[in-house]
Amino acid sequence: MIQFDAVHKRFPNGTTAVHDLSLEMPEGGVTVLVGSSGCGKTTTLRMINRMVEPTSGTIKVNGKDVTQQDAAELRRSIGYVIQQAGLFPHRTVLDNIATVPLLLGWNRKRARARAAELLETVGLAADAGKRYPHQLSGGQQQRVGVARALAADPPVLLMDEPFGAVDPVVRTQLQDELLRLQKELNKTIVFVTHDVDEAVRLGDRIAIFRTGGHLVQCAPPAELLARPADDFVADFLGAERGLKLLSLQTLAAVPQGPAPRGGDWTLVLDPAGKPLHWSSKETELPVRPLKDGDSLLAALNESIASPSGLVARVDADGVLTGVSSRDDIHVHAGQAHSAARVVAA
């Protein structure tokens, strides 16, 4: 757990970056810090590993006051990922990942073996270890940055807008990879972003800051979206916060029935029972099958796009299990909103 107790940070020019912050970041969870530029979110993150020193107050990581620890040792015990990866250009990928273990006194063979293991963990091919950073794409470099931060198996991982410099498709892939890794590794992650959608997708808790370093609200995503603390939070989350709430609910509970036969539209399957397309007398249109774990928002979008108003449901192997109607999806979307408001209250 990371605990901030009345932490204040004022810079020499008189600017207050963080104002009397009291906040707990649960062990094994992802706490996302969001807010506009200059609101103190990056300063808050950097105070955890003492890259910025607090003016007053206490910060504890797993019960230990960070200001009472050697700064260099503290930083080696905390993973740190930044935008643009921050890799050493003159070192191979494998040696980049092995940096912290070597600083901790591991022998070269052990450090490089750990680095090779982490290449697979973050979804990179083994031969990537022989390359240099400039030979990788932006998304691959960010994966290397995550691997380097994980190399010494730190309990805490700090991530400062790590996916902000890549295109939207790669960003989604990196988010998926982080969610997968977190399920496996269960780290305490503090993640800074200015993107509300990214915060909702990744965070177990979201802390919203306003200019001057004031914490306005910290809550699980569903609670935050259902019951923003004030107009500032509501405006920051945006007019589509109801749709964002649907992105947190899955399709699993929506009823399904057999695909219709003989109507205006027929769902055509391949020999293995996997959906191919919707077919009518005049044309064929694409189908986007969904699984139980897909969101209600995705189901709502697909029900609108589908010419039949039906969403094809498939199992883990992509085989059709049934279809769900647009009306049933709408009903469950409304129920999800109501349930979230009750829980938040």
Largest β-sheet summary: 6 strands, mixed
Averaged pLDDT, please? 90
Name the strands of the widest sheet in spatial order.
6-7-8-3-9-10
SSE series: EEEHEEHEHHHHEHEHEEHHHEEEHEEH
Query: What structural class do helix, strand and pairing data support?
Result: alpha/beta
- The unreliable regions are none
Beta-strand percentage? 15-25%
Q: Span between N and C termini? A: 26 Å
Pfam families: ABC_tran (PF00005)
Organism: Streptomyces fuscichromogenes
Protein name: ABC-type quaternary amine transporter
Family: Belongs to the ABC transporter superfamily.
What is this structure's SSE topology?
Blueprint: E1 2-10, E2 16-25, E3 30-34, H1 41-48, E4 56-61, E5 64-65, H2 71-76, E6 78-82, H3 93-97, H4 99-103, H5 108-121, H6 138-150, E7 156-160, H7 168-185, E8 188-192, H8 196-202, E9 205-210, E10 214-219, H9 221-226, H10 231-237, H11 241-246, E11 266-269, E12 275-279, E13 284-286, H12 296-305, E14 310-314, E15 320-325, H13 326-344
Parallel strand pairs: 3-8, 3-9, 6-7, 7-8
Antiparallel strand pairs: 1-2, 1-4, 4-5, 9-10, 11-12, 12-13, 14-15
Helix pairs in contact: 5-6, 12-13
